[in-house]
Amino acid sequence: MNKFFNSYRLFTYTFFGLFLSLFLFTGTVAQKAAPQPPNVILFFLDDMGYGDLSVTGALGYETPHIDRMAAEGTRFTNFLAAQAVCSASRAALLTGCYPNRIGLSGALGPNSQIGLNPSEETLADLLKGKGYATGIFGKWHLGDHPTFLPLQQGFDEYFGVPYSHDMWPLHPNQANAKYPSLKLIEGNQPTKPVNTLADAGGLTSAITEHAVNFIRKNKKKPFFMYVPHPLPHVPLAVSARFKGKSKRGLYGDVMMELDWSVGEILTELKKQGLDKNTLVLFTSDNGPWLNYGEHAGSSGGFREGKGTSFEGGQRVPLIVRWPGVVPAGRVSNKLLSTLDILPTVAKLCGARQPRRKTDGLEFTGLLKGDDSQNPRQQFLYYYRKNSLEAVRQGNWKLVFAHPSRSYEGFLPGQNGQPGETTEKREMPAALYNLERDPGERYDVRGQFPEIVADLEKLAEAARTDLGDDLQNRTGANVRPVGRVAKN
């Protein structure tokens, strides 16, 4: 009998030991297999046009690091900034909303009494709520009052300039020469002044240094790093090591240094073993400021540039790299917008979506290689305070009669001085087929009245929702801009 119980005890202990080992092994495997949320780096250049990368046709200089991103990831060729001006474009990127939905327009100046309402949820807010470290290094331009600075909008760290670096006493337009001195801000505190072009020439390297240090500090936890470089917005400035390096003059030198910055950050990811678990996005806030001549970028052949609702003002490159997730060496011509970055990144990172109405559409399936998906079919071209200047459905774009900036017919400036332009050229109503006429030169309204009728319905829905200053319409679903509290 004792022999039987001893055998039974041995069998029980052995079975329990095997079960415990299997349980622990399974748990370990499951723990190792659990996917880690990706790090996210978002580059957002200022006034870089569609044609300003060597991969998109730039001449006189090379951008090898950004080109390598395209070779190792996907390049989107039909990508639109939400609006063709600084503050509005940045508000849309960080909130996934048309900027007029949240009350923002234009480019905010120094000592602005308005800014991005802190009640709006930014991408940084959403990712911080998921345990991400969040940092911004570069140009903010969503309100320079402490109420609106990045640390009050979801970011843990901030280093950069509060608005465009031409908003300073050296502005070429003497009417704007009363701007206050420009200062770098770290956290919430103004620090080193930017008084000269030599000071401005150090911006790219200083931003890059802060970005690299942020990666090193947060290598053991997920992070979101937003790098909105102030350049190549005028006034152009470059460090001594890149001055004269290109055959395109100062603009080419600046682009080479910005490409170097991207390379330094990608190299640091590799050094820290984070390369394969980091989603990197690269794009621009709007098209080139064409009347600055050789100090301006290239629209890549699209019509007009910054400050217009034509494609040259809003069509910009988007390059996305995430090894093993985003297909390498791929080019996609599916319609997308900066509005779509927030919902897509939030979903990829396991974060919730904003609680209030937004306008972005997530494109995770398309991003990962499912080319059967067409998440965005429509786009609204709002400009100025709240003017609906055009609407788009697929490749059809209906332009409404509106006053507009125009560069056409004016000689560009030289040596960093702006040439003439007009802010009030009357643009006629027109229908363009962007599939065969991306330069928007041939009005085909008379040939396709049914397309015009469909696009008019889209416009009417937009006016009900967001309003339209061109028709003196107020939208039903717009929210208040942030305002400095009065004492």
UniProtKB/TrEMBL annotation:
GO molecular function, one term: arylsulfatase activity
Domain of life: Bacteria
Keyword terms, alphabetized: Hydrolase
Record carries keyword Cell wall biogenesis/degradation: no
Keyword Hydrolase: yes
Family: Belongs to the sulfatase family.
Full protein name: Arylsulfatase
Species this protein is from: Adhaeribacter aerolatus
Gene: arsA_1
